Amino acid sequence: MTSATSRSETASGPNAPASPSQSGARPKPAPPAGTPVRVTGAQSLVRSLEAVGAEVVFGIPGGTILPAYDPLLDSTKVRHVLVRHEQGAGHAATGYAQATGKVGVCMATSGPGATNLVTPLADANMDSVPVVAITGQQTRALIGTDAFQEADICGITMPITKHNFLVTDPADIPRTIAEAFHLAASGRPGPVLVDIPKDVLQETTSFSWPPEMRLPGYRPTLRPHGKQVREAARLIAKAKRPVLYVGGGVLKAQASKQLAELAELTGIPVVTTLMARGAFPDSHRQHLGMPGMHGSVAAVAAMQRSDLLIALGARFDDRVTGRLDSFAPEATVVHADIDPAEISKNRKADVPIVGDCAEIIAELIAAIRADNDRPDLADWWTQLNSWRDTFPAGYEWPDDGTLSPQYVIERIGQLVGPDAVYTAGVGQHQMWAAQFIKYEKPATWINSGGLGTMGFAVPAAMGAKFGCPDTPVWAIDGDGCFQMTNQELATCAIEGAPIKVAVINNGNLGMVRQWQNLFYSERYSQTDLGTHKHRIPDFTLLAEALGCAGLRCESKEEVDRVIRRAMEINDRPVVIDFVVGKDAQVWPMVAAGTGNDEIMAARGIRPLFDDDEVSQ
Fold first, then answer.
1. Can 86 be counted among the known catalytic residues?
2. Is 558 part of the annotated catalytic residue set?
3. pLDDT digits (tens, 9 = 90+) for 184-229
4. Would you say 33 and 69 are in contact if contact means Cβ atoms under 8 Å apart?
């Protein structure tokens, strides 16, 4: 069935000369760019990936995608990383994309291979991450017959991708790949899936580059409307209690410098969401921290009592707003986002601005400078500093003398520093990593925000390390999350990705246990993992079995020494089993279903906001 193709025909890139034949004949010169070349669909796919600049593909071969793996073996431009589970491939592509700003690529076979990508695709969709997933599919004649390992992956992923394609003509492969990468990276970024039947990969076709893209109607708005920008500037000038509410869209737009200029020009306080940590330096005097369910009291209070919210690349999600009907009741809202569907979706925007955040902020700065009118925020900053001083970030050590998880994470951040990349799983350790590590730069904090995917940290760290091989990459993980995807440490060990993994081992599903403690009368149903009581698994031994260095830390006195030891090991991945107290809790907290006014700074203690203090 497969057309015969010599190895020399697939060994080089699309514009490289062919190898001399064994007969000693002179090599033929490479055809000029744009000249069609006869190749298989699989060769066309690999050449297309090379042409769009794909550097790394994370994947696992299988029956229907197998034709693509033969020419991939010969590519000198695209590195393939053989993962241990397709979910790991998807999260690695996300980690790569978040760390580099480039499109991450993953590959899987049909059926279970493709469906194992569903979680990372949903995750990337929620967090607006540019990922292209390439999946094999049963041959065209068998589609719809329930053939072996057949699944309608386009139908399955339609709600959780920005777009997806089923390629039925091999001639369409270059155009489809070009369109997929363009869609993933432009406008509001997101995941795109390309499903290719096996016989389409095997069929002979022609390849030429660049193809002509056909995306009628897809024209993301980048430049904002000047009238709305001028109105936003006018509102800023007269505001008494403004807040810059910064979301992940600022990072996607690479607009951190513009944000800093806007903040310093106006003196407005800044809050950065979980997805925007690092967009504005934590050390900056105007930064109030992270808002939301486990945000700082100052950030939550500032938003709640603001008279003007300037939302930049944020979507007013429920983890930030709490009960929507009681969120920031006195605030006028300026909402800037590249996705018009987000404007007024949750909170009505008084001034909607559609466009790229970098463009919007730059034009807003120009409008403010043109008016030469700045808000007087002296009284507002007096109130903000009072909240900040009254409710600083902090934690208590466990009464039983066990190790504090917050201390561990805080020391990792202090010793490793702000130049590293940090990833996290989902749960208590994620919130502590967001709270107690100081982020000074963009693309240094990678986590699963919208979907909240346990098992994200290790494969995302792996992807980040392949994207930034000279940068230290630390995965802050929980013992529950770690047991979901730790098999990718074998990939890291074999493929040369010496990440560090800090397992915050509290013996249970910590965030679920916290909710059981607070809201279910301390009935701890099915949250004890046994990693404390039985040491099953023993994480240090597991690490060694997976080709890593395994370390353990159980006391405060050992923390710095063990972290430094991990930093010294760079020839293989490192796993540190930090055995911490089982009952540490994440504070502050706005319980689900309550309003931000009900934020708890600690168990039973609620900060009281005196309206008279801020109604200047």
1. yes
2. no
3. 999 999 999 999 999 999 999 999 999 999 999 999 999 999 999 9
4. no
Peptide bond into 398 cis (omega under 30): no
User: What are the distances in angstroms from CA 263 to CA 282, 334, 352?
Assistant: 13, 15, 20
Is residue 44 a contact partner of residue 207, using CB atoms and an 8 Å limit?
yes
Q: Pick the catalytic residue: 98, 511, 516, 585?
A: 511
Cβ proximity of 344 and 335 under 8 Å: yes
Q: From the candidates 28, 148, 264, 616, give the one annotated as an active-site residue.
A: 148
148 is catalytic: yes
Catalytically annotated residue among 102, 162, 198, 465: 198
Give pLDDT tens digits for 96-122.
999 999 999 999 999 999 999 999 999
Phi-psi region of 66 (alpha: psi -120 to 50; beta: other; left: phi over 0): alpha
Is there a contact between 271 and 303 (Cβ–Cβ < 8 Å)? yes
Q: Which of 43, 50, 86, 431 is catalytic?
A: 86
Q: What is the dihedral of CA 256, 258, 263, 266, to 10 degrees?
A: -170
Tell me the HSE value of 199 on the side-chain side, using a 13 A CA sphere. Answer: 9
Query: How many H helices and E strands in the chain?
Result: 25, 20
The residue among 72, 101, 106, 103 whose CA lies nearest residue 89 is 106
- For each of the domains in the chain, give its residue range(s) and CATH number, in order of start: 7-13+34-207 (3.40.50.970), 226-390 (3.40.50.1220), 405-579 (3.40.50.970)
Per-residue tokens: 341: 């569907």
Q: Which of 9, 55, 149, 261 is catalytic?
A: 149
As a whole number of Å, the CA-based R_g of the chain is: 26
Residue pair 220/186 in contact (Cβ under 8 Å)? The answer is: yes
Identity of the amino acid at 289 = G
149 tagged catalytic:
yes
CB 296 within 8 A of CB 303: no
Among this protein's residues, is 511 annotated catalytic?
yes
Give the total residue count for the chain. 616
